[in-house]
């Protein structure tokens, strides 16, 4: 039933329904993502166009490289919009505090925005997060800006992209789900607790706000970076399995310009 798990690393790029770019170590994956960010901004700046990215907090290894290149090459971000994918919510279904260890807003401020030359950084109103109190803001902003140039992201252990958790609905229905709040699955909370809270599942938030698959699939390009051991199975199911809302990333098989960028580790066979 799951014969794609047996695809060897040497054949991973062959006949994939989502194209796969296989690189060396994780640093190469992050550098590839950062370069695409920088080159897109530079080209749009030359053409007098805005740049609109959907950005993750996971993976994050591209951001130090991006910051260094922006500062070194004196690249203006004044016409750049970063639309972050998601954020954890507290027990009142509001953003967790920026000072919280898990806050994506806090991470972006600490690791990205505060590290860029103030003369180059985009205005604060162009650093956007989905807001549980105004779910229509991001779809309206994307329409106003003329669409998203690139959606960057990763893939969750259950195939989620952003926090679009699996659902028992058709793939077509799932593809139309917009920005919304939702309950985080046990699988996601568990794997995130391992990486972020040393296994403290009970301390993980139970709810989040996320952009929808509708916004993700509307992007002109989609670039997903993977590098962990458990990504070995995930990328095979994403690129060779059936299209289903039970494994959300599989919907990218229908996108005209999606790409999974993997390191050598994640390219290995699961078993």
Named CATH topology: Rossmann fold
Shape: globular
* Name of the level-1 CATH class: Alpha Beta
Task: Give the helix level as a range of percent.
Answer: 25-40%
CATH architecture: 3-Layer(aba) Sandwich
What is the helix/strand order?
Answer: EHEHEEHEHEHEHEHEHEH
User: What is the typical, i.e. mean, pLDDT?
Assistant: 97
Protein name: Glucosamine-6-phosphate deaminase
InterPro entries: GlcN6P_deaminase-like, Glucosamine6P_isomerase_CS, NagB/RpiA_transferase-like
GO biological process, one term: N-acetylglucosamine metabolic process
GO molecular function: glucosamine-6-phosphate deaminase activity
Layout of secondary structure:
Layout: E1 20-22, H1 26-47, E2 51-55, H2 62-73, E3 80-84, E4 86-89, H3 104-111, E5 127-128, H4 137-145, E6 150-153, H5 171-175, E7 180-183, H6 186-196, E8 207-210, H7 213-217, E9 221-226, H8 231-240, E10 258-262, H9 264-267
Parallel strand pairs: 1-10, 2-3, 2-6, 3-5, 6-9, 9-10
Antiparallel strand pairs: 4-8, 7-8
Helix pairs in contact: 1-2
